[in-house]
Design a protein that fits this description.
The structure holds two protein chains of two kinds.
Chain A (H helix, E strand, L loop, with lengths): L1 H28 L2 H4 L14 H8 L3 H32 L5 H11 L8 H14 L8 H25 L3 H9 L4 H12 L1 H17 L2 H6 L9 H7 L8 H35 L1
Chain B lengths: L2 H33 L2 E2 L2 H5 L5 E2 L3 H7 L2 H32 L4 H16 L2 H11 L6 H6 L10 H29 L3 H9 L4 H29 L3 H6 L12 H11 L3 H28 L5
The chains are: A mainly alpha, B mainly alpha.
Keywords (chain A): Cell membrane, Membrane, Transmembrane, Transmembrane helix, Transport
InterPro entries (chain A): BP-dep_ABC_trans_perm, MetI-like, MetI-like_sf
Subcellular location (chain A): Cell membrane
């Protein structure tokens, strides 16, 4: 009897927690008149794709979706390459400044990147003078900052995965005549792939969700906006097109949801590991 | 390989990472401090006026400004409410999760995972819509159509805090659940054999064993909730009417990019960084105590 009560209570809580997401998807499929009705109901008998069509055509969400995908994917690709090399250097080699570098990596993760908007804004402005593609109003500026923000954690997390590959394997590969380069990319890289997946999902989500830097850097080039910014632009205090906004939110949330589901097990064991030591 | 050879290869592997981090993190941190020492406004940016070195002038200006203290107080209070709320909800649900069958627990975790992974901007707009004065479902259920949650300062803060708790309790819940599960069954059985009540076991056995994990999730939550930007910005439309819903992060942004007081904005950024570094020191100590090694 008591367990039934607890379980019922937990299920109600789960429902409450999931409700905003349910409401988002439901509203995205509701016809216009049901959305701006004074008596909203938690169901619809006339599901329609109108809101998605409006979001994709009028609000041009397709373009912003593509921009977000491009930024996030380039960040992930670069961050995999760079952090893999750095993590290998920090785990496979012994050199003098190693411990100092590790401590700096840890400290740098704690710097609130939000505080860096002012200097980064001016940095991107001067970068743009010589290389426009990486300057203000261009997606390159977003790639640069998100790469920098995701590297410290990616390197930190990959260290464990690289360290788990036995040193004997490298010795065997060397004996078999494999060059250092071949060992790195044909032996070590595939072996740490699970770790790379977990870190790249985090980098992806980080870049995908960013609102502050997109808002700061993409000032006038509307065609280079990313999803979070575009979504905010359509929230106006007077007459919101809630249907299109909810359709846009749905489009924005689903990729993250899928990625999160894919790696949640690894992510959680990683987090628990980080906590338990 | 010789030690020198090792060092050289390691350095080659590290070069790309070091270049990116030096150029896009270390240099901006240095620039942040530098800009905060200058009178850096619109004229200086466009080259119409010479740069004047103020020394600590921006900081004096800031500390003498009533609004800064109000915003600082609001930031601390807002973060405190979010942290306490997140911890209570997360801990309560983690404990409940240990007492129910697997499919019930998986349902709860799945819902939490959804809330956790929702992008902040999307989450904020969904909540705004749910609590919309005229078309929102919440007002319909409560029968208070036309009531604006975002107009009043305190209901606006409350709404944002609720949204922040919604998307941050899952981390606490999952971590604490893992922590509870990691406690060996024999320990709890021994307590039960000794005649300890369920409450006594929770209070005197489970809680002390979980202390390091609780400490880490608390400090992690403080770090996160102290620098909430997106939710405040989106839900209160840039810091509320006449800036009454500002927190430090949004305040710095508005000073720099809306008022073109870049020097002042940078000074607020420095203050925030210092405050967070102090919290971080506690974090590192907590990590070391719970056995994390470099």
């Amino acid at each position: 009897m008591k367990r039934w009560l607890t379980e019922g209570f937990v299920l109600v809580i789960a429902g409450v927690v999931a409700f905003p997401l349910f409401w988002m998807v439901l509203s995205a499929f509701k016809p216009e008149d049901e959305i701006i009705s004074a008596d909203p109901v938690p169901w619809t008998t006339r599901p329609t794709l109108d809101s998605f069509t409006r979001a994709l055509t009028v609000a041009n969400f397709g373009r912003y979706f593509l921009n977000s995908v491009v930024v996030a994917l380039i960040v992930v690709a670069l961050s995999i390459l760079i952090s893999f090399l750095a993590a290998t250097a920090l785990t496979r080699f012994r050199f003098r400044s190693r411990t100092t570098l590790l401590i700096m990596l840890l400290v740098v993760q704690m710097v609130p990147v939000e505080a860096l908007t002012v200097p980064l804004f001016f940095l991107m402005r001067s970068v743009g003078d010589s290389v426009p593609a990486f300057g203000l109003n261009h997606l390159g500026s977003l790639v640069l900052v998100h790469l920098a923000f995701s590297l410290p954690f990616a390197i930190w997390m990959l260290r464990g995965f690289v360290a788990a590959v036995p040193v004997e394997l490298e010795e065997a590969a060397t004996l078999d005549g494999a060059s250092r380069f071949r060992f790195l990319w044909q032996v070590l890289f595939p072996l740490v792939a699970p770790g790379l997946v977990a870190t790249s999902v985090l980098s992806f989500i980080h870049a995908w969700n960013d609102f502050l830097f997109a808002k700061t850097f993409i000032i006038s080039a509307v065609e280079n906006q990313t999803l979070p910014l575009a979504l905010q632009v359509f929230v106006k205090p007077d007459q919101n097109d809630w249907g299109a906004i909810m359709a846009g939110s749905t489009l924005m949330t689903i990729p993250v949801l899928i990625f999160f589901m894919l790696v949640q097990r690894r992510l959680m064991s990683g987090l628990a590991g980080a906590v338990k030591g | 390989m010789t030690a020198r050879g090792q060092g050289r290869t390691a350095f080659a592997y590290l070069t790309p990472a070091l270049l990116v981090l030096a150029g896009l993190l270390a240099y901006p941190i240095y620039q942040l401090v530098l800009i905060s020492l200058y009178d850096y406004g619109q004229e200086q940016v466009s080259g119409g006026a010479p740069l004047t070195f103020l020394g600590l002038g921006n900081y004096q200006n800031l500390l003498g400004n009533q609004q800064f203290w109000t915003v600082l107080g609001q930031t601390v209070a807002f973060a405190a409410v979010c942290v306490v709320g997140t911890l209570i909800v997360g801990a309560f649900l983690a404990i409940l999760a240990t007492t129910v069958r697997t499919w019930v627990r998986m349902t709860l975790f799945l819902a939490a995972l959804g809330a956790w992974s929702t992008p902040a901007v999307a989450g904020s707009t969904i909540w705004l819509f749910l609590f919309d004065a005229n078309f929102g479902f919440v007002n319909e259920v409560l029968g208070i159509q036309g009531f604006s949650w975002t107009f009043d300062k305190w209901t606006a803060f409350g709404l944002v805090a609720a949204q922040v708790i919604w998307c941050s309790f899952p981390f606490v819940m999952v971590t604490l659940y893992a922590g509870i599960k990691a406690i060996p069954g024999e320990v709890l059985e021994a307590a039960a054999l000794d005649g300890a009540s369920a409450f006594r076991t929770a209070w005197s056995v489970t809680l002390p064993l979980l202390r390091p994990i609780i400490l880490v999730v608390t400090i992690q939550s403080i770090i996160w909730d102290f620098k909430v930007f997106t939710q405040i910005y989106v839900m209160t439309n840039g810091g509320g009417i006449a800036g009454r819903n500002l927190v430090l992060n949004v305040y710095a942004y508005q000073q720099a990019f809306a008022a073109s007081e870049y020097g002042l904005g940078a000074a607020i950024g420095v203050v925030m960084t210092v405050l967070l570094l102090v919290i971080t020191l506690f974090y590192l100590r907590a990590l070391r105590r719970s056995g994390e090694a470099l």
